[in-house]
């Protein structure tokens, strides 16, 4: 069965889960896309995404707890910005992106980055309740099954801990929405989904209780902060 047609378990119970996207990226497509991106990623996307990344990291720095999981850590652009009191575990599917993150950790002597592992964020090997917080920066619209990602983050973060997403979400309508729908045809080469709706990731109950903050530039990205409460 294709990824697009498959049904996914609801993590909130009350709302049916929409299909993830018309052209979900499977693991191999992600690896291929980010093999191409790895050398140019920081220059190509690092600038425009900087405000969102810093806002997410600053939010985590202000939260209690030490152990932080960053999924889809990429080239490690966020890593230098965590307080040194935070212990960061980074995971990513892409060997090439992780190689860049490892170079950065060495270059900047980031001793609080305790592990960088090649691992699928939708299906990790961590024990339940391993982390105080987990963050996915510009990742939710890349994974094939966003609700599975949410379930996994809820599992590995302790109750009362926090789950953060910074992402671009589909505009509800207007010119921007139309452009994003049109751009979605290029999802595989872009390596992300311009037409990614927040409801593909979060059930209504989570949307209702999350802190949702638009982020510069132009509110193009959104920071979602969710306390990890039992469903
Ligand atoms: C747009 S980049 C974001 C990188 C980084 N978070 C940042 O802020 O720049 C998306 C990253 O997610 C990774 N990724 C995609 N699907 C993944 C999955 N299922 N598990 C782990 N990493 C994944 C990609 O390899 C890529 O490095």
TrEMBL record:
It comes from the Bacteria. GO terms for molecular function: phosphatidyl-N-methylethanolamine N-methyltransferase activity; phosphatidylethanolamine N-methyltransferase activity. InterPro entries: Methyltransf_11, Methyltransf_Superfamily, SAM-dependent_MTases_sf. Its EC number is 2.1.1.17, 2.1.1.71. Transmembrane segments: none annotated. Residues 69-165 form the Methyltransferase type domain. One of its GO terms (biological process) is methylation. It is an enzyme of class 2 (transferase). Residues 1-23 are annotated as: Disordered. Pfam families: Methyltransf_11. Keywords: Methyltransferase, Transferase. This is Phosphatidylethanolamine/phosphatidyl-N-methylethanolamine N-methyltransferase.
């Amino acid at each position: 069965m294709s990824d697009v047609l498959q049904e996914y378990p609801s993590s909130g119970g009350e709302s049916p889960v929409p299909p993830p996207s018309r052209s979900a990226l499977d693991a191999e497509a992600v690896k291929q896309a980010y093999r191409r991106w790895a050398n140019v990623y920081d220059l190509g996307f690092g600038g425009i995404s900087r405000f969102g990344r810093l806002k997410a990291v600053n939010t985590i720095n202000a939260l209690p707890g030490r152990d932080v999981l960053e999924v889809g850590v990429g080239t490690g652009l966020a890593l230098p910005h965590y307080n040194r009191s935070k212990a960061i575990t980074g995971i990513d599917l892409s060997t090439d992106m992780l190689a860049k993150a490892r170079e950065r950790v060495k270059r900047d002597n980031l001793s609080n980055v305790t592990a960088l592992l090649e691992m699928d964020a939708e299906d990790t090997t961590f024990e339940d309740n391993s982390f105080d917080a987990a963050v996915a920066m510009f990742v939710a619209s890349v994974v094939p099954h966003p609700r599975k990602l949410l379930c996994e983050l809820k599992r590995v973060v302790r109750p009362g801990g926090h789950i953060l997403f910074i992402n671009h979400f589909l505009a509800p309508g207007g010119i921007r929405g139309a452009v994003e729908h049109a751009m979605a045809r290029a999802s595989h080469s872009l390596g992300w989904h311009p037409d990614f709706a927040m409801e593909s990731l979060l059930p209504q109950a989570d949307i209702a209780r999350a802190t949702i903050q638009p982020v510069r530039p132009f509110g193009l990205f959104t920071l979602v902060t969710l306390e990890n409460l039992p469903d």
